[in-house]
Design brief:
The chain is α/β, with parallel strands linked by helices and about 90 residues long. It has one domain. The chain contains 2 helices and 3 strands; from the N terminus they run βαβαβ. Strand 1, helix 1 (about 25-40) and strand 2 form a beta-alpha-beta unit. The radius of gyration is 14 Å and the shape is flat.
Length: about 90
């Protein structure tokens, strides 16, 4: 029996720095890093800590195309596995 939650998938987005400084939200990067730590903690959520289960978008990765690609990835993971939980 696995001690991991094999069917969990998460897309975590921390905007952080943006091309328009007035829209930057640096604290969101720390927030998604903390959320990832909770998700992968074996005593809490126990998600697998790999790119097949958790996608973390931060700073320059949080473009429209980056976010849409992340959402497409999450949709694909959920559709491929009827037992999947997607966050």
């Amino acid at each position: 029996m696995s001690n991991h939650f094999d069917h969990g998938h998460a897309l975590l987005i921390g905007v952080g720095r943006t091309a328009e400084p007035e829209y930057s939200l640096p604290v969101t990067v720390k927030d998604v890093q903390a959320l990832k730590a909770v998700l992968i903690d074996p005593n809490l959520c126990a998600y697998l800590d790999d790119a097949e289960h958790i996608r973390l978008l931060q700073n320059e990765q949080t473009t429209r195309s980056g976010i849409l690609a992340g959402l497409a990835w999450l949709k694909e993971k959920a559709a491929a596995n009827p037992e999947a939980t997607s966050d």
